[in-house]
Design a protein that fits this description.
Blueprint: E1 6-10, H1 17-31, E2 38-42, H2 48-55, E3 60-64, H3 81-86, E4 91-94, H4 97-102, H5 107-119, E5 123-128, H6 132-136, H7 140-151, H8 157-163, E6 164-168, H9 182-198, E7 207-211, H10 216-223, E8 230-233, H11 240-247
Parallel strand pairs: 1-2, 1-8, 2-3, 3-4, 4-5, 5-6, 6-7, 7-8
The chain binds 2-phosphoglycolic acid (PGA).
Length: 249
């Protein structure tokens, strides 16, 4: 089954609602000519509504960067999948390494957030990746395998086929300017696909994105790898021209 290339920006804690609107107005004409690619922007929760309104009809999907797994409740500061969807999100990032490292997200929490996202009909972009210490200790595959099994626990093949997108983001490559080489990324992503298959999931139809210091000048080489089906872009997604150059790789 062909896997439609998926190019997603992750704005992290950057941009107000108005800045999101300005960005989208600027980027839409720059990416308009591209058929057969899915384009998405994960924006701060405060910008979801305005971004979704601005992107309406453009083909650019708007997403949340995190969710709580409950539908509602006494969880100060959190938003639910249903709330993100009502504000205009059609996807959510789940288990980004910054959530895992700075805010205590565990594999178990990620699995609950994933279920909540899919339950609200959001596409879920589930992130996994090893730290530098884990890579240097030769533990990359073991770490990824454990993250995959924990984060995707309880996920059915049908739900995965409908709404799961994976992202491999080596922690040492995020925001550091140090990209995994295309060979390293390919080898690791082929391993992730084999693991998905071993877990009984429809691995051949699940997109696996690469993330970590993606820039306009390395996007095409990464996308040429057979197991890299898209890119998750942080820093380079903050400017319309560099994000457009990546989308149009
Ligand atoms: P970066 O971030 O492109 O700035 O390295 C990627 C990410 O964290 O998703």
């Amino acid at each position: 089954m062909p896997r439609t290339p998926f190019l997603a920006g992750n704005w992290k804690m950057f941009k107000t609602g108005q800045q999101a609107v300005d960005f989208i107005r600027e980027v839409v004409p720059l990416v308009a000519g591209r058929a057969g690619r899915e384009v998405a922007l994960a924006v701060p929760a405060t910008a979801l509504f305005q971004a979704a309104e601005a992107a309406r009809g453009s083909g650019i999907a708007i997403g949340a960067q995190n969710l709580h797994w409950e539908r509602e409740g006494a969880f100060t500061g959190e938003i639910s999948a249903a709330m993100a969807a009502a504000a205009g999100a059609s996807l959510a990032i789940v288990g980004h390494s910054e959530r895992r490292q700075l805010f205590g997200d565990t594999d178990e929490w990620v699995s609950r957030k994933l279920a909540a996202a899919l339950g609200a009909d959001l596409l879920a972009v589930v992130c996994v990746g090893e730290t530098l210490a884990q890579r240097e200790a030769g533990r990359t595959l073991e770490v990824l395998s454990a993250q995959l099994r924990g984060s995707l626990a309880g996920l059915s093949a049908t739900a995965a086929g409908k709404g799961l997108v994976m992202a491999y983001e080596p922690v040492w490559a995020i925001g550091t300017g140090k990209t995994a080489t295309k060979e390293e990324a390919q080898e690791t992503q082929a391993f992730i696909r084999r693991e998905l298959s071993a877990m009984g999931l429809p691995a051949e139809s699940i997109r696996i994105l690469y993330g970590g210091s993606v820039k306009p000048d390395n996007a095409a080489a990464l996308m040429a790898q057979p197991d890299i089906d898209g890119l998750l872009v942080g820093g380079a997604s903050l400017k319309a021209d560099s994000f457009a150059a990546i989308v149009n790789f």
